[in-house]
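User: ok so my PI wants both of these folded by tonight, can you help

Assistant: No problem, let's get them done. Here's the first:
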Amino acid sequence: MSEPEPTDFDPGLATFTEAAEAISAVVHRTPVESSASLSRLTGGQVWLKAENLQRAGSFKIRGAYLRMSRLGTEQRRLGVVAASAGNHAQGVALAARELGISAKVFMPLGAALPKLDATRQYGAEVVQAGGNLTEALEAAHAEAAGTGRVLIHPYDHADIVTGQGTLGLEILQQVPDARTIIVPTGGGGLLAGVAAAAHAVDPDITVVGVQAAGAATYPRSLAEGRPVPWAAVDTMADGIAVGVPGDVPFSVIRRHAIHVRTVGESELSRAVLYVAERAKMVVEPSGAAGVAALLGDPDAFPGPVVVLLSGGNVDPLILLRIVRHGMSASGRYLEMRVRVRDSPGSLAALLQDLAGDGANVLSVEHIRTYAELAVDEVEISVELEAQGPDHCDSVLQMLHDRGYHVVGSRAG
């Protein structure tokens, strides 16, 4: 049977129910966790769907396994090829291992090392090619054409959309009174699947997509009625750093009249930090996009709200930078320069005063070489962690009240 044209694909409840059964032996039913802090913020119930706890660390195993489980005998013999920045790579590699299929995965040159290693450990052959997903996908297409391997596209195939859509069924089984589902969005496979499945159960439920502002392909594409390429993808959220919507998911998303929002890099960082601190879960920037949207506009979503945490695969080194960026975005860093007498005990007194006001000193530097300094003066550069913007103001006011000469400060 030939595959439907992209504009003809219109899955119903039976399609998703069958898919859920087909992947049930391999895919975890991930938990939903109530978020008290987000519920207070919005004034309604907010739930977090923890797909970051899924096998291979993201939702991608759902679509990859469904797609590959439906391959014929000869297709399985030839093997599969895929392209991914990391999550789809791991999903394909794991699915291939479960099904006994050879997998070759092309990943961009800048892919995170933990994602590269995990993909190899699942048994796939990994080739780094191109500087972004689009270029890696071109290499995968060429491999498929030259070898006969089946291309397992990260988002642009009916089976991929259907597999990801099992999340929509799962969410409404776990939170049957949900009124809004917020979904991180790249190429659109996850958003299309969740929207179609959720609307098959409840046509009145609101499904919202969230993209990084540096890869916001959907708002313009939906406005123009066709997939429009994004000229220069630029976001830390590699899981949703996609240059053009897929034809299959785009047709579904447009048919279901789904609204897609955008969030900036600071909002993504803040959301990663927020989930770590409040929900005690590690998510990657793309996985936190829905939380970023909710934090940015808490009154915009009818509750109860389910926010999908789509993935947790993040390089620890990148996570450190993200957390630092998130703390800065939350106004929890304060850098300042303070002039004091160059005498024993001056530094200790400053640090004691800062600690007494609840500030956590991160770094200290003595500066004695400024021409503006008096002979008996020293300038101390201090970087500290505060509890928020108000606390930064309080620390500066405390220093002023105690007679310190603060010659420069920057909060953020």
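One down. Here's the second:
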Amino acid sequence: MTDLTPSASAAAAGTTGIKAPGSTPARTPRGYTPGLAAVNFGVYLALLTPVMVSMAFKIQHISASTEEATAQLGMVLGVGALFALVANPLAGRLSDRTTSRFGMRRPWILGGSLVGLGGFALIGSATSIWVVLVAWCLVQASMNAVLAAANATLPDQVPIGSRGKVSGVVGITTPLGILGGNFLINFISDDFARFVVPGIIATALSVIFVLVLKDRRLEHKPTQRFTVGQFFGSFVFNPVKHPDFGWTWLTKFLVMFGYAGIATFLPFYLTEKFGLDEQSAITTILIANLASMAAMMVSAPLGGILSDRFGKRRPFVTIAGLIMVVGLVLLAFAPDITTLIVAQAIIGLGAGSFMSVDLALATQVLPNPEDTAKDLGVLNIANALPQSIAPTIAPAIIAFGATTVLGGYTTFYLFGAVIALAGAVLVYRIKGVK
């Protein structure tokens, strides 16, 4: 699973690198904004389609049983998410130091998309879970390198006063990528094509962006050597010295943990509990995601506007978290498909508001104004890490739940609800923000 909000770490990479004097442009180059949005859309379509739908069925096709497929899906997505977590900031930092005559960012964007396409082809043709695992790790690393380098062009290409507008345009590419991938898979039944076609789309859009991008060039090799210690040190903070920032990190981690496992195991939930065949499950996931994304698009701006108007952040973060909890509980006990779709919409309603208000809250508790980019990178870990941990431990929770009267997937979604509830409550440990 990819980092659902990679722009924070990518922005961190782009704003903490080696900047040439006067490199901030006077205006945004023509075609840059749609090009950046297109490459983000392509990468999200390619990466999140497997996470939402196709990876579960691919693994099911090469596994001996549903129980084995559940465990293997958790392993593949969990390990892959760790590669995404490391590759995104690492590629961004390295692109800051790239002295290629083709520019600082373009080699990473083009190279990453081509390597990723090869990885998708490997997954599509694989008959072994270990080939799928290695190829998915390769895909996560390479495609997150594309995201990091592409989004790091923002401070290179866009004046400070226009960056919010450009970021807003790019921000909508995540739900559009999810919906586009779900829609595409409805018309593809072959495993190979389910992975390669989205990969081709991502690669094509990356190539177009590379062709239109007037990339910045670094003329001289950086004199300071980049060490492993420097890389990991950039994403460390002291929670004792900065407790509000620490509680903000934990709140985000817990709520996102409750959110992260929803999509991953929904295909298995639909086929096991409701007896849907593969095509019916894919169609249901598309409708559920449409409902969730529509709710997110309403609640994200509304939550931010209301929290600004009342001058308060914590109550809105808590309310958003509690709405997600209600959706998770309803999902856990859904008696029919209609209820499941309603539950997904409720979860999306809470998640959209949480993500917008939580980010506003986070900007008010950053430890050091001079290290804003680094601290946003730390917060991005709280977003990305649950996407690795949740799928990894999910099979054990589902297996345990299967031995109880609740059932495996009901237990898993209730566990997510409890974790999200803890995050919604702990936001009140933050004392420096109302």
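Residues 237-434 form a domain with the Growth Hormone; Chain: A; fold (CATH 1.20.1250.20). Confidence is low (pLDDT under 50) at residues 5-22. Good luck tonight!
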